[in-house]
Amino acid sequence: MNRRIGAPRASVRLKLVMAIVLLVFFTACAQQQQKTDGIVINSFSGEPVIAEAGDNVRFFLDLENVGGTTARCGLTELYGLESWYTLDSTRLSGLRPWRDKSFSFSFSNNQLNLCYYDLTKGLNACGSYRKDDGVSLSVFVSNAWNTFLNDYCDSYQSISTFPDARFFSQLSPVLPQRNRPGQSQTYDWFFKPPILPEGLKVNYDVTARVSYAYTSNAHINIKAFNKEEYRRRQNLGEQIAYPVDVVNSYNAPIQINVRQGSSPIIVSTPSDFITDPIQRENYVLEFVNLGSGFPLPLESPDSGFIIAVVEVNGPGVYFENCLGQEGGTAILDHDIVRSLVKLRGATNSAPFSCTIAIDRSAWANVPTGTISLTFSAFYRYYTDAETKVSVLGVEES
What are phi and psi of 177, to 5 degrees? Predict the structure, then answer.
């Protein structure tokens, strides 16, 4: 399928907006920080906790979207019941056609391709989305992602044919400003335990995994002054200390953080002593996984992925170099991504360096302003919960 993603043309802006799309990989490593999850599993249980052959064991799951954006295309699966039976005595095989599949992603010549496993058709399907001239990269990627998710979600409406899996199309987010909780969902499963020999008591550890598509948004404001305004404020004893202001989506599992960089930025205008018309400011940023789970894989089963659009705004500003991308608009290739992965270590974060270029002349008559970075990250994420049911062997009569 081939779609053109368009939007109404915006009025001409004085601010230069440059965008860089980042493809960032995360590995599953522990992090000792406060957890923030999009979807949380409030409870997962099995009853009775000690079962015998012939019992109908009920598994109950209660999940909720506690984040600030909509959770979409949610897939819930039970693991660890491969030797159990449905109520009509059909053995659970545990085989799922989608479990060894993953999304794939490519972008070239203004065309974005996103592929997934279509459960209805039983084969890989791809959406191809063309960026129109005049459409911002962030609008294009957001529209393409949402269109892609509609097709992906539709293909999983037949998930009920798999007795230990459930699917939801979307769960609405929390609205803390209105004291409105996020949407919740509950599921029940009933299965029969395996028949075991007399004298045995076998523990079955059962895992519920909820995977879903999610979006994290972040905005970074950096205060800036031209040098004359900064010195004036300094001489008058006015405020000149402004920390970097970072705002992330409420309770998003993937968030953006600023590790290092100047704030405020003091722009020196051209003079006899400053001949370079461009001032450069370097920032070390990072995507951080603060959730209980991890992003799901893109191609490689050992890593997760994020598609993220990053935009910079401000008088006379643009990206000079950000992860090897020099100006313009780009999606990172796999070689750069692999280099990024090597930097992560065991911190459960993906740091990267961005150098912002500032045209000094644009600040000659601008005493103060704001330079901002806006992030929109699109990904699939999962979280787990576990319960245990013990099964007794059959007593001989």
Answer: -65, -25
Residues carrying CATH 2.60.40.10, the chain: 39-213+382-392
How many angstroms separate the CA atoms of 66 and 182, rounded? 5
If DSSP codes are grouped into helix, strand and coil, which group holds residue 133?
Answer: coil
Structure tokens at 313: 């705004």
Rounded CA separation 99/317 (Å): 44
Q: Tokens for 170, please give them.
A: 């979307």
Which residue is associated with the tokens 């979807």? 39
- 204-255 pLDDT, tens per residue? 999 999 999 999 999 999 999 999 999 999 999 999 999 999 999 998 998 8
- Evaluate whether the domain defined by 39-213+382-392 bears CATH number 2.60.40.10: yes
pTM: predicted TM-score of the whole model, two decimal places: 0.82
Which of 57, 91, 58, 98 has its CA nearest to residue 76? 98
SS3 content of the chain, % helix, strand, coil (to 5): 10, 50, 40
Handedness of CA 338, 343, 345, 351 (dihedral sign): negative
